[in-house]
Amino acid sequence: MQALVRPSVAILDYGLADTVPSLPDLLRKGAPPPAKSRGLPMVAWVWAINVEAGYRFRIRLVGPDETVLVDHTTNALEKRKASYLAYVGRKATVRSGKYQLYVEILNGDKSIQSKNGLVTVSE
Predict the structure, then answer these.
(1) Distance between CA 65 and CA 98 in Å, rounded?
(2) What's the farthest any 2 CA atoms get from each other in the chain?
(3) Domains in the chain, number
């Protein structure tokens, strides 16, 4: 008889948008469109599954000129979450260009999983 195995934590998606995404929309429609440089605030987000109590999320956004725009770590989760969305917003408007977005799941100071990539913001 096989023992039941809890699935591993996983980062499903992440991005930079003009509004906060919602879990139902992510499930039904996928990721929101990337942020545009049209005077709106921006939201960096990460969607993960099978996240344990005590885990935290770190979201770091570096602008086209290599300036760190966001470096935010969430509080530890109080309980296990099958599906979880972490995000951080910034009221400053976004300029056109390529942004480097880093997302990471932490257990204490130990990195459990991380992803990063370029996000292009157009007009």
Answers:
(1) 9
(2) 58
(3) 1
93: in domain: yes
Contacts of 99 by beta carbon, 8 Å cutoff, 6+ apart: 16, 61, 62, 63, 64, 69, 118, 119, 120, 121
The CATH number of whichever domain residue 80 belongs to comes to 2.60.40.10
56 near 3, Cβ under 8 Å? no
Residue 44 placed within a domain: yes
Print the domain residue range for 50.
10-121
42-62: pLDDT as tens digits? 899 999 999 999 999 999 999
Q: What are phi and psi of 97, to 5 degrees?
A: 145, -175
Most confident of 4-8, 29-33, 38-42, 80-84: 80-84
